[in-house]
Amino acid sequence: MSFNIPKGTKDVLPEDSYKWHYIEDAVREVTRLFDVREIRTPTFEHTELFLRGVGDTTDIVNKEMYTFIDKGNRSITLKPEGTAGVARSFVENSLYAGPLPVKTYYVTPVFRYERPQSGRLREHHQFGVELYGSYGAEMDVEAISIAKALFDRLGLDSLVLNINSIGCPVCRKEYNKALKAYYSERVDSLCETCRGRLEKNPLRILDCKEEKCIEINKDAPVITDYLCDDCKKHMEDLKKGLDTLGIAYEVNPRIVRGLDYYTRTVFEFVSDSLGAKSTVCGGGRYDNLVEEVGGKPCPSVGFGMGIERLILTLEATGKMPAPNDCVDMFLGYAGEELKYAALKIVNDLRKSGISADTEFTGRSVKAQMKYAGKIGARFTAILGADEIESGIINIKNMTDGSVKAVAISDITGFFKEADL
Questions:
Q1: What is the 8-class DSSP label of residue 254?
Q2: End of a domain among 290, 316, 342?
Q3: Residues 131, 53 share a domain
Q4: Across-strand partners of 16?
Q5: Which of 130, 225, 363, 383 is deepest in the core (most CB within 10 A)?
Q6: Residue 399 Cα distances to 266, 322, 377, angstroms
Q7: Which of 331, 336, 330 is nearest to 362 (CA)?
Q8: Residue 336 sits in which domain range?
Q9: Could you tell me if 278 and 374 lie in one domain?
Q10: What confidence tens digit (pLDDT) does each residue in 256-309 have?
C-alpha cells in the first residue's frame, strides 16, 4: 500500500529547501536590524480565540478553519493565521508589563481549508510581524518599513504598496449605515454568504471574491468619505511618515482586508508577476484585538506574508538565486579497506567548518566521481594506497579543472586558503 500527500499540502524537497533558507535568513537579518524578536506559539489553539479575535463573519472562521474536538471534549483549531495566537501570548505572558513597544515576528505553518491554488495551500507558511504599544502612525510606518526592507533585500523592487484606512468604531458606524443602505437595494444580486453579512458586518462584503459581488462593490460607498477627524489625521500622519522614508505608495480605498480585527490602517504589497494582481503581503492596525482576547486595551499593528507565495514571486521575477549549498569537498576512495580512513579525513574537515562527504554505497571510483558531479561538489579527491603511503593527495577544483597536490595532514589548511 502506498500513500499520497493530502490535498492542499506540499513536500519541500531537498533540492528546494535552499529557497526557504534564503528567505528565512533574510527574515532574521531584517528583523535583527529593526530589533524585532522571534515568538513561537502553538500550532493549535482553543477555537474561541479565533472566533473572538478573527471574527465570526470572516471566510476564515465560517469556511476555512480546521476545527476538531479533542479527547478532553475541547474545541481545538489549527491556527489559520498568526496574529490572534501572538495576541493571546502577549496577554497570557504579561508582555504588556515589560518595556513597550513589544516587537515580535514569527515564521509558522498556518492551516486553511480552501481551494488549493498557486502559492496558497491548505497548509502554508507565513512570516508575520506584530508590534504592540503605540497608537501613533509612526508604528504603522515601522511595520511597512520592515516588509519593504525584506522585499528590498530579496530584490523585489516591482511590488506596489497600497494603503487605506478603514476607520475606527466611531466612523465605521456611519460607514456601515451607508453600506447597508447601498447593499439593501441590491440584496438579490449578492451571493448567499454576503446576504448573511449584510446585517452582521456589511464591511465584509467588500472583501468578497465572488464575481457578482465584486461587480456590485465597484460603486459601493468608500470609507475615506466617512472618516472621523482622528482617523483622517492618522492617515495623513501615515502618508507623511512614508513620504519621509521615501516609500512609494498608492491610496486604494477598496482595501479592507479579510479579518475583523483591523482598525484604521490597512495595507497590501501587490505584484502582477503571477498573472492577475496578487497580494504578497497584507497587514494593518488592530487596536482592539488585545482587548478582544482578554487583555487590557493595547494598540497593535502588523502584517503577514505567505512564504510559498513569496517564493513564486521571486521565481517569476528571476530574483531567486541558484542553489549555493553544494558540498565543499567530496572524498572518494579506492578500496573497501580505505573507507574509514576517508571518513576520518571527512570528519576532520567537518570539525573545521568545511562541508564534506564521502562514499557510503560501495560504488566504483568512476561512479563515485560521477556522483560527486551530480551533487555539485566544489572539490574532489580520491584516497588510495599511494596517497596513504606518500601522505599527499591530489585535490581537483571542479569549477576550473585545476589540480593541486596537498598534504593529507593539511587538507584543512588548503580549504582555508581557498576562502570558501
A1: T
A2: 316
A3: yes
A4: none
A5: 130
A6: 50, 16, 9
A7: 336
A8: 329-418
A9: no
A10: 776 667 889 999 999 887 666 688 999 999 999 999 999 999 999 999 999 999
Confidence of residue 52 (pLDDT cuts 50, 70, 90): confident
DSSP 117: B
Q: How far apart (Å, rounded) are the C-alpha atoms in residues 21 and 37?
A: 18
List CB contacts of 141: < 8 A, sequence separation 6 or more: 238, 241, 242, 245, 247
- Give the H/E segment covering residue 408: none
Q: Say whether pLDDT at 57 is over 70.
A: no
Cell 586558503 locates to 417
| CATH code assigned at 368 | 3.40.50.800
Instruction: Give, for 118, the enclosing helix (H) or strand (E).
Output: none
Q: Where is the domain boundary, 316, 344, 362? A: 316
With bands split at pLDDT 50, 70 and 90, how would you rate the model's confidence at 407? very high
The C-alpha cell 513536500 sits at: 11
CB atoms within 10 A of CB 406: 20
CA distance 150 to 144: 10
Residue 215 in domain: no
